[in-house]
Design a protein that fits this description.
Organism: Arion vulgaris
Radius of gyration: 11 Å
InterPro entries: Metalthion_mollusc (IPR001008)
Number of helices: 0
GO molecular function: metal ion binding
Number of strands: 2
Keywords: Cadmium, Metal-binding, Metal-thiolate cluster
Largest sheet: 2 strands, antiparallel
Family: Belongs to the metallothionein superfamily. Type 2 family.
Oligomer: single chain
Length: 63
Amino acid sequence: MSGKACTGACKSEPCQCGNNCQCGGDCDCSQCKTCKCTNEGCKCGQNCTGQATCSCEKSCSCK
């Protein structure tokens, strides 16, 4: 789990929190924050910070 650079584009839909990039293997895609969280109750373009954690953007609200 090192700081690997992401070389893939962000997945627009079905993206996993923590891995919002189309990179193979264990890639820490923390720079790609344009994907929507797949967590229930989270909408808009939140930043995925964990499997069960969603950080909302300014004009968004998570439940």
